[in-house]
Amino acid sequence: MDTAQHSVTDTLPARVNTVEISPAAIDAESHYYANDPDPSLAARRALVAHELLRQRAAALGLIEADAELDDPALDALLEREVRVPEATREDCARYYEQHASRFVRNELVYASHILFAITERVPLALLRQKAEDTLNELLRTPGLFEARAGELSNCPSAGVGGSLGQLARGDTVPEFESALFDGGEVGILPRLVRTRYGFHLVRIDRRVPGEPVAFEDAQPTIANFLSERVRHKAVAQYVSILASEASLENAALEAATSPLVQ
After folding, report:
1. What is the count of structural domains for the chain?
2. Average pLDDT of the chain?
């Protein structure tokens, strides 16, 4: 059982029982985790987890021993071995009360941004430092925002001073949406916003309050969200149990100490 974490280097292959996952495969997968603090580590964990699931599906006869794990086979495996409780009405009502600001209809934000896009040519630490330096400058001198957007932003909105115009929930990626809508701030946000695209400096130009969505209308959406969140946790625990039963090398994956899926 391997419990290595950040000490795993990018140059080492991972091994799941007799199957090796090459550094090249990990590097290719890491592009899907560009918004993770450590894309390579996240990719390594994801590929190890996938291989654990694939081998378990093969052991149960759901796929051939050397076959890829496709979505139908994965669904069949999880349905067979992972219990996911349904969200109750009480669960949904509690979530609705605790996150009332998320259940608003016709809420709008007028915003601008400066994007420092992630590319293979620029080291991530250097890109972050440039974004932070620019943010600190703009917090001191907000009037320079449009000029810096035109000079530095890697978004087409640079041509209009970084303006994104009117935005509603669902118009942007979730991590950017959260920065726009989950607070009541106006003006330049005092922190970088990290998304899969890079680092954003965000200015909230104006907010238009919306109308609350009734609980009965919101409940189906909440139930789906809570069920998916519980399913994700259950699958993560299931993978950790598979890890505890496997021979792993350089996997960077936690193994469960309990033999039971809760």
Report:
1. 2
2. 89
